């Protein structure tokens, strides 16, 4: 069931890039609204069914959930601007280094991943490189954009790791409610400081924002937070690499953009890497 839910989550986040590309709103404003709308959707459930749990979270779990929300906001704030400073291929390849940073952070915490997990992460990332190519520019602006995308990947790794820790004792709804609320507040501040327009959109744009919230945020990120408790951060973060070929295939079907020739073999390579990670992780915990 967790692997099925993970597949649904990856499908949801794969809609993110095509929807953002088709939405006529500033990138940071899109990031804000997808989180703010998710908070609005979660509020009735959080207050009616999880009020006691929220009230009894305690300072440590609230701070950890808020820290995860801060890292998620940092991920969006770094990655989205990088798309306008460097090539999309370079930005995508660098931001999807998340499982590599996850493995490094786990190692720093004293966890030694099995050899199969390490090999799987490398294979899966090579699949992303196969799809996106290597398109690093030496211009100062492009290099800064590359650095932002890389930082976005590191922030995402921290977000997944903290989420795995909190979800050991906190329900998905309570955790995501505090996490997304923190992300929304921080992104609102960034939008106000940067002058990103938060309103004045067409009805079609608001509809796409609602679809983005439902698919990428509530189904995507929330289900990732749901399954990370049992599957662990290594499997979850590696599976997120499937977003890249998934977005390419969705863009082909929805936006009529022909996927690159490498999309299908890249998908196979990423799936092979993910299979190695899952196998190695199960042997470790078995």
Automatic annotation (TrEMBL):
Belongs to the EamA transporter family. SUPFAM superfamilies: Multidrug resistance efflux transporter EmrE. InterPro entries: EamA_dom, EmrE-like. This is DMT family transporter. The chain crosses the membrane at residues 62-82, 88-108, 115-136, 142-162, 174-199, 205-224, 236-255, 261-280. It comes from the Bacteria. It comes from Streptomyces meridianus. Residues 3-132, 144-278 form the EamA domain. Pfam families: EamA. Keywords: Membrane, Transmembrane, Transmembrane helix.
């Amino acid at each position: 069931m967790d692997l099925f839910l993970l597949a649904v989550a990856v499908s949801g986040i794969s809609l993110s890039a095509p929807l953002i590309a088709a939405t006529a709103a500033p990138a940071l404003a899109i990031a804000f609204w997808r989180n703010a709308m998710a908070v609005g959707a979660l509020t009735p459930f959080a207050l009616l069914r999880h009020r006691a749990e929220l009230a009894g979270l305690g300072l440590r779990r609230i701070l950890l959930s808020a820290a995860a929300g801060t890292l998620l906001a940092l991920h969006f704030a770094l990655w989205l601007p990088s798309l306008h400073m460097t090539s999309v291929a370079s930005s995508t390849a660098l931001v999807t280094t998340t499982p590599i940073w996850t493995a490094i952070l786990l190692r720093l915490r004293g966890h030694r991943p099995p050899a199969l997990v390490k090999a799987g992460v490398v294979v899966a990332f090579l699949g992303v490189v196969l799809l996106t190519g290597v398109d690093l520019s030496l211009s100062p602006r492009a290099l800064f954009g590359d650095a932002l995308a890389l930082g976005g990947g590191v922030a995402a790794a921290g977000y997944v790791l903290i989420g795995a820790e909190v979800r050991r004792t906190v329900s998905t709804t309570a955790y995501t409610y505090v996490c997304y609320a923190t992300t929304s507040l921080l992104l609102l501040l960034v939008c106000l400081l940067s002058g990103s327009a938060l309103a004045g959109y067409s009805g079609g744009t608001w509809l796409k924002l609602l679809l983005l919230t439902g698919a990428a945020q509530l189904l995507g990120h929330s289900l990732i937070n749901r399954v990370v408790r049992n599957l662990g951060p290594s499997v979850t973060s590696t599976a997120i690499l499937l977003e890249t070929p998934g977005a390419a295939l969705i863009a082909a079907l929805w936006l009529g953009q022909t996927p690159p020739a490498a999309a299908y073999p890249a998908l196979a390579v990423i799936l092979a890497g993910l299979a190695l990670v899952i196998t190695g992780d199960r042997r470790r915990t078995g």
